[in-house]
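Please, structure for the following, as tokens.
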Amino acid sequence: MSIETKLKEKISVALKELGHEVALDSIIIEHSKEVAHGDFASNVALQNARVLKANPRKIAEDIAKIINMDGIDHIEIAGPGFLNFFLKEETLTSILAKIKTDGSNFGSSSNGNHKRINVEFVSANPTGDLHLGHARGAAIGDVICRLYTDTGFDVVREYYVNDAGIQINHLGESLRARYHQEFNDNVAVPEDGYHGEDLVELAKIIKNEVNDKYMVDSAESSRFFMRRGVELELAKIENDLKLFRVYFDKYSFETDVRNDNGVEKIIEALTNKQFLYEDDGALFLKTTVFGDDKDRVVVKKNGQYTYFLPDIAYHLNKLSRDFSKLIDVLGADHHGYISRMKAALQMFGYPEDILDVELIQMVRLIKDGQEFKMSKRSGKAVTLRELCDEVGVDAVRYYFVNRAASSHLDFDLDLAHETSSANPVYYAQYAHARLATVLGKAKKFAFDYSGVGLSAASEVTLLKLLADFPNIEWEAAISRSPYKMTNYIQKLASAIHGFYTECRVIDEENLPLTASRLALVDCSEIVLRKALNLIGVSAPEKM
């Protein structure tokens, strides 16, 4: 249990004795900004003054009198009623033995109680390369899964392959044209087809596989180009995701959802529930019954399904696999999708919160202060692989999760190349390399994880941040906020650099202090490496 959680529990018990019960989450504990104000502070007395109908300073004094003082040296009341906690030295330093014992499991927990969660992300149409929007969704979705898994949830990572519909017809027609061109048969790519150069490469692969077998057009050849096109595009996507350190437990296919009359069964069920009606030849779903701003078309006048209908069938398929929560990571252009899908699932008896959606805002590349286009192959959008080749996987992953998913992201290519403290990726990785270098020189020295003698301001700051880690990880997981982990990494890196500058770690004339400082270095390395791993970024030992 972290120090903050212990303090929250102590305050909660004290408030209960004063006749007021509060949730632990509502109690705010902060690091004191100055040593003179203690180690931690809380404004809980001011927060609850109205309910307790008393002066907040008096409430703070009452809490201080009642509170369990185990691990606390003393409490001071500041200003209008702030509680400043001064901890006993051993309270902070005890974290070192815990970190050393837990190793890479420090911060891991069973808080999720093995609840089964399905996280669907990326799910790019298999019609071309992954672009920046897909890449940011891949990074955020992957880190959400890493955080959930490490905090005790049972997570299934899922990719939904839209291998049916008009876009796949266009893929097949475009690939067929490129295949004909390989035999000097100048068949034009359809105007509404896919014109990227990547299809030229796929056509070469198919020519090597089947020679001229499909030069004569037929229903069979059309099906072949669609099917083989999807297979080759998906294989390319999987390779790019592997490069990006992203994997999936399951790939689901729209064609499978449509098989066995799956969509027709959904229509029948919705009809029986009286949630469908016809208007001007089209079939509408009464999503407004469950809060949507308008009813949605599910079958067009021409009898074709909208994409929404097979999506309903797919989400019901996921729920049939016994998940307690579905999470979709989607582009920001899917904003209107949320209410209609929640409405559809409620029609089948599921609660509104069975589905949560994380919307990912767009990415702009910036170079020399201006928006920058650097695509070499696609002609339309920068690909994931191009960006990773330009600045490295670590930088792309770090920057893509460094801000909230709901925030637009300007990716500064110049900054990503910098080897300075201004570059957050370099700054964090250099901190780890510094720690690894010290540990590499310390093999002949003893390590003391009791923390005796660690009292310098930079040492105390570092100890507090290490003790924070389990709370930060859980908060980042439960709120699905990877950026909270990068915020923590920056604070930890800053504390490590400050400690490294202020304190002489290896001092052969003071071996007891050396032993304690080496233990602090060791534990800092363990936690920083774990934090970087949770966002899928490497922890180099040399830079």
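The mean pLDDT is 93. The longest strand covers residues 154-161.
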